Amino acid sequence: MDTGLAGKVALVCAASRGLGKAAALGLAAEGAKVAMCARHMPTLEAAAAEIQAETGADVLAIGADVSRRSDITRLVDQTARHFGRLDILVTNSGGPKPGLFGATTESDWRDAIDLVLLSTVLLCMEAVPHMRRQGGGRIINITSISAKQPIAGLMLSNALRPAVTGFSKTLANELARDGILVNCVAPGYTRTERVIELAEATAAREGVTTDVVERRTVQNIPLGRMAEPSELADLIVFLASDRGRYVTGTTIPVDGGYLRGLM
Fold first, then answer.
1. Rounded to an integer, what distance in angstroms lies between the CA atom of residue 205 and that of residue 170?
2. Both 212 and 104 in a single domain?
3. Which element (helix H / strand E) includes 116?
4. Per-residue confidence at 214, pLDDT binned at 50, 70, 90?
5. Angstrom distance (rounded) from CA 230 to CA 232
6. What is the rounded distance in angstroms from the CA atom of residue 245 to the CA atom of residue 177?
7. Do the Cβ atoms of 243 and 175 come closer than 8 Å?
8. Largest CA distance in the chain
9. Structurally, how many domains does the chain consist of?
């Protein structure tokens, strides 16, 4: 299938591991030039070198913390200057810390807002002018199934992922005439470092082993297993491609049937 991604430029955030790394690899494998960002430069450079070796794509590693405004401005500017354009933005960040409402502080809330919501807003602010100048683009925001169905013990994520979803839907309507499509992808339980960390936190809180937590989680997934990061990346590649040219303003779960709602 010709995706039309050859020669396109993608910026993928939080790409040193997990879902971000899988998305960067998927786009690079289709011929896109990829800028990858993360906070920990050695891990990021290793991931970029791995993807470049595997795909032969032009890959740029940029150290950046997306919870900082100055880093976001530098990140988008450096990407556009290095490659000469920006076609695809994949927003992503490490999740906010888990915990119940009584365990969160005002500082926790402010940090989570900066990390999850404002990072998405500011990345779009910086990227959209580049896309407008070239007549179109794609924005794909990685959120979570918690945007549609709250997950116990994730107060901060449950509050802020839906905020990103509302922002994305509104932005999609505003940018449609510019040829810029905006969508969210909502991963369910996927075998990433983040999900392992959450399982460990739940196990510690309940006084059980992580194996018990994982078995209980998988029992609630109709497909009977967790997703692999590449399965989310496949959807991101489709939405970024010419094949996804009539899809905008939506949130698509990749959850093995975990969500119980109709929409």
1. 38
2. no
3. none
4. confident
5. 5
6. 13
7. no
8. 55
9. 2
258 lies in some domain: no
Query: What gap in Å lies between CA 66 and CA 177, rounded to an integer?
Result: 28
The answer on 34 and 16 residing in a single domain is yes
> Could you give the dihedral angle defined by the CA atoms of residues 164, 109, 152 and 230, in that order, rounded to the nearest 10 degrees?
50
Q: Nearest 5°: phi and psi at 223?
A: -75, -10
Residue 79 zone, left/alpha/beta (φ > 0; ψ -120 to 50; rest): alpha
Sequence-distant (6+) residues with CB within 8 A of 186 are 143, 144, 145, 147, 148, 161, 251, 252, 253, 254, 255
Kindly report the pTM of this predicted structure.
0.94
Q: How is residue 226 annotated by DSSP?
A: P
Q: Are 142 and 25 found together in one domain?
A: yes
Q: Is residue 260 part of a domain?
A: no
For the chain, the 3-state helix, strand and coil shares in percent, each to the nearest 5, are 55, 15, 30
Q: What's the pLDDT band for 97 if we cut at 50, 70, 90?
A: confident
Residue 115 lies in a domain: yes
Q: Return all residues near 98 (Cβ < 8 A) that are at least 6 apart.
A: 153, 154, 156, 157, 198, 201, 202
Residues 6 or more apart in contact with residue 145 via CB below 8 angstroms: 151, 186, 187, 188, 253, 255, 258, 259
Q: What is the pLDDT of residues 159-182, one digit of tens each?
A: 999 999 999 999 999 999 999 999
